[in-house]
């Protein structure tokens, strides 16, 4: 049974940093494209970042480029979202996702999802 467990969310002041984690079981993260998406209240789910199965390629959404990174730890079978210079506009629930056959910014191409981690950035 595949499970993605998101953790590490919290409250942080604008300009601060936070890391959310995704622990995978039932799949090997280095065999999947692993992505992060976020959803704020009343808004559609938004692409944040993706890392290819090989780890050789990463893509970031325009709103987070230069501030967020998506490292992966194959030994721990985990993926992270490291967030720096946080803004109130980054407030959302952050979801980890695993895509079996694609490296995509579109959520419909992902097969498995975490339960989400709330990140709140205060002004």
Provide a descriptive summary of the structure in words:
By secondary structure, this protein is an all-beta fold. Helices cover about 0% and strands about 50% of the residues. The chain has no helices and twelve strands. The chain has strands at about 5, 10-15, 20-25, 35-40, 45-50, 60, 70, 70-75, 80-85, 90-100, 110-115, 115-120. Strands 2, 4, 5, 6, 10, 11 and 12 form a seven-stranded mixed sheet that branches. Strand 4 and strand 5 (about 45-50) form a beta hairpin.
Core attributes:
123 residues; mainly beta; seven-stranded mixed β-sheet; five-stranded antiparallel β-sheet; 12 strands; 0% helix
Order of helices and strands: EEEEEEEEEEEE
Question: Roughly what fraction of the amino acids lie in strands?
Answer: over 45%
Poorly predicted runs are none
Query: Span from first to last CA?
Result: 40 Å
Multimeric status of the protein: single chain
- Number of helical segments with 4 or more residues: 0
Q: How many E-type strands?
A: 12
What is the average per-residue confidence, as pLDDT, rounded to a whole number?
96
Structural class designation: mainly beta
The rough form would be described as globular
Biggest sheet details: 7 strands, mixed
Q: What is the share of helical residues?
A: under 10%
* Rounded radius of gyration (Å): 13 Å
